[in-house]
């Protein structure tokens, strides 16, 4: 099969780009390993009080279904349960698991999203220990409880919102604790740093936290920091948030049976006693990082950029790369929410259309403004310094462009 | 005062040279731009297949080397996964049969007891082989070893015998004084030595370029596919006749009908993964894997072992084999430059020849008699 | 359906299928990944680690970690978090083994 | 902290990795070649960021320690699928 644009990743960025490309008269194929389109949209379900009245409930699955329907009605080829194992030439996309061995295209758009960062702790290979993303997917998409009694480790915007989702779905969450404080694997996870980060996030985009953590959070967090975290325990939706206890061990023979929590000082040193809490499930949260493998094999230079969540392909503010015919969009460019990814998908489509000399319904500049707007209105911010990261990337991009 | 030697290059050959130098009592500094086995030695297979090797100096070296391998696990007190596995060269076409008959006849004359066996005998010896094979060779003396383990064990043994190992330290240039090499320069320091051994594989020529010395080593890229872990089923090392044909091609300047030089070389690691090679291609210093080459190697593997169609390839890599025009390594001093030695250019024989190469270099540098005629391997032959 | 960990009834309109896990007959919803059906049946251990021998189950849930592998309809090491079961599918914790096959061939 | 698995695919423990760093490994591939971390099915997708953090905190350089280069095939693929034309 030959298409104008091959898109890898059927998440918010990839699907939105496909719709935009097909709507402007070019052919597109979207390929994804998952069994249904939507990517991280599929697990999302939350309320956003700052959104327009008719958009306050964000039902990611519904959004995904609508995008899929739109794409299909525009003739976009969607390949699900298909793994891309190679991209080469300009372009051949080698696929496994489906009927076709490969497709070729003039343009390649990588919207491969992100992977969860592991949070190793003794016992974390036991069945019953899952990532926070898995918890979200099983709860909101599959409607299967991840366990009967759940402890969450890692206190951050994503784990907090998933905790609420678990509660809303009727799952018993026994509590949330800090991740382990090991010197080799537990960087920047002390109680103080955790609270500071939450405060950053709350200050920048308070919507979710105001609602979810209650007014308590915004008002008290600064004081908590100032007073050296004398308040060790918050309760959100009746779930204890242990700001001064870190998970140090997951126990069990064949499955998770309990977790060991260790009291820690504000700077993360063990202080005081340990306790064992019986649970059958542990949810680990440590953030996301961009999945860049295909970009690297396609010849794209990579840049380490912690502000964007890890290593990202060098790209311009319009989603182009230095490799001709290669574009990127979504979390592969830095960790942000679904609405930003969708705006980036539309922007990538506009840039692709422009590169192919096609008139687009939206100009590249307009699409860039939409990305900025989506970022400003994001209900949930994963990385505190995302804007700084974007600026840094643009500077590197400009410097590289100046050199030709 | 003991003899000071710098070894440049931390691959199999450099690590082995450093190890044997410490055994000879030299004061050794091993300098490596990245890490032990980070280049060719970390991107090769485990075969020590000698049955097809043309009788002559390289084969003689290899046989000496195998004798060293047999003692090395005990000597280094490390598991190297050395095993006398025997080896087969599988034959798919009548043309290949003719070539292999010729090869076997030649080897037998030289006293190497390689046999031709039928396709059915090959299947009995190695279950899973395709029924379509028309025959195979078999030699029980072929062996295998884990080149990563050998590299690290040699480097560690050298270190525990007092060698200094500087990783992440590129050798920028050779320091000379009146046509004599007196040491090397790194980004941070000058290291003076009585002798320098350059064991930088495909990167060796670059160090000699400034002196107008042409070292005819050319990188020849080889792909290797790695399968998921499987139960141990491969009892022996296996090459295809096509692999041998491609290996023997000395055509780095001519057009080739099979530009990828694909032939099968398959072995199983202790972990259970299959290492499936290979290709031979002149692509400069490029080490990217190519999906088309990967596919062709996959085809060769499934042709030989139809049931591998159900196995997964979990990764692939390429290594840059240090090719020389006559297929023999360069071991020895450099004419017109005192104090410097080359130990490089082993192409696919580095694994087999690592111990003996290191030992020879140590003897040479320390002025000991290795009892071998090694002039054959000197740079001046080109 | 006898599944104990199903969260709500909204999925009841979905079609039910039967499949086998290590020869045990189980129910699942048509179109959902095998890992979800297994978890709904209270099954957390999908395989044992070939190196450590320890139990392993769902970890990332979206195909990155390869922990939820199982043999599905004769293909070993399929990611169950991505793969819906067919009616009557046969899922096994461990591959029945390429070794056995190889020996049958000889 | 108790020892624990870091590379889930290959069963590589924290202590193995610390030993490899001790021995001179300063990059993700250096760890991988010494103790097999990142050699399994997920190709380091789970453990690589952890190992990189460990290397950074142990070696403390200005630059992030090198990670492994992604190579084709980027995912495990059945030979049957790979050789289809």
Report the CATH superfamily of the largest domain in chain A: FAD/NAD(P)-binding domain
Number of strands of chain C: 7
Question: Fraction of residues of chain C in helices?
Answer: 10-25%
Mean pLDDT value of chain A? 89
In whole angstroms, how far apart are the ends of chain C?
46 Å
Taken together, the total number of domains of chain A comes to: 2
Quickly name the level 1 CATH class of the largest domain in chain A.
Alpha Beta
Give the count of helical stretches of chain A: 11
Written as H for each helix and E for each strand, in order along the chain, the element string of chain C is EEHEEEEEH
- SS-based structural class of chain C? alpha+beta
| Coarse shape of chain A | globular
Low-confidence stretches of chain A: 203-212, 214-218
Explain how this protein is built.
Chain A is an alpha/beta fold and 404 residues long. Chain A has two domains: 230 residues, FAD/NAD(P)-binding domain (3-Layer(bba) Sandwich), CATH 3.50.50; 156 residues, FAD/NAD(P)-binding domain (3-Layer(bba) Sandwich). Chain A contains eleven helices and 21 strands. In chain A, the strands form five sheets. In chain A, strands 10, 11, 12, 13, 14, 15, 16 and 17 form an eight-stranded mixed beta sheet that branches. In chain A, strands 1, 2, 5, 6, 7, 8 and 21 form a seven-stranded mixed beta sheet that branches. Chain A has a two-stranded antiparallel ribbon with strand order 3-4. In chain A, helix 5 packs across helix 6. Chain B is of the alpha/beta class and 382 residues long. Chain B is 29% helix and 25% strand. Chain B is built from nine helices and 19 strands. In chain B, strands 5-6-4-14-15-16-13-17 form an eight-stranded mixed beta sheet, with helices on both faces. Chain B has a six-stranded mixed beta sheet with strand order 8-2-1-12-19-18, with helices on one face. Chain C contains two helices and seven strands. A five-stranded mixed beta sheet of chain C has the order 2-1-7-5-6, covered by helices on one side. A two-stranded antiparallel sheet of chain C has the order 3-4. In chain C, strand 5 and strand 6 form a beta hairpin. With 85 residues, chain D is mainly alpha-helical. Chain D has one domain: Arc Repressor Mutant, subunit A (Orthogonal Bundle), CATH 1.10.10. A two-stranded antiparallel ribbon of chain D has the order 1-2. In chain D, strand 1 and strand 2 form a beta hairpin.
